[in-house]
Amino acid sequence: MGQQFSELSPMHIEFIAAQKIYFVSTAADTGTVNLSPKGGDSLRVINSNTIAWLNHTGSGNESAAHVLMNPRMTVMFCAFEGSPLTLRAYGSAKVLHKGDAQWNEYIELFPASVASRQVFLLDIAKVQASCGMSVPYFSYESDRNDLAKWSEKQDKVGIEKYWVKKNQQSIDGFDSEIVERSGL
Q1: pLDDT in tens, 30-54
Q2: Which domains does the chain have, with CATH numbers?
Q3: Are 40 and 81 in contact (CB under 8 A)?
């Protein structure tokens, strides 16, 4: 079993800052568990007990729908180079949409993007560090820019139409509140 902590240490925060990819897991009380890879410049450690991550437009909107029903969230980081380490932050999450009072406070932390859909705030209750000795080595080449290109082509109006068409419900039919809380 790994080591457990009540908050992120300075070493954990330094490790997180060096990662190019992280994974987010959410689940409602019933239905499908969601596990999503995230990348790019989309995560900020606010303090030792708070992580904020920017959710860009995608084909699904599972995390938002799940967090509205059950705020449990796990964010995981893996060392794919250097010393082995798997770091998990467990806690309760809150989803912010463009129409929410705290939106402007947090969206300013990230690069501007027409694809910015939600910001999630994870209130960390527990951190676990485990060895990660079986995680393979991978070399980072670059971030993908496919989503940025697609989003820019859609523009703001196209992205919002996409949200209405594709992002209102999870694959299990749970509401994401994207239309109501984004002012659409």
Answers
A1: 999 999 999 999 999 999 999 999 9
A2: 3-181 (2.30.110.10)
A3: no
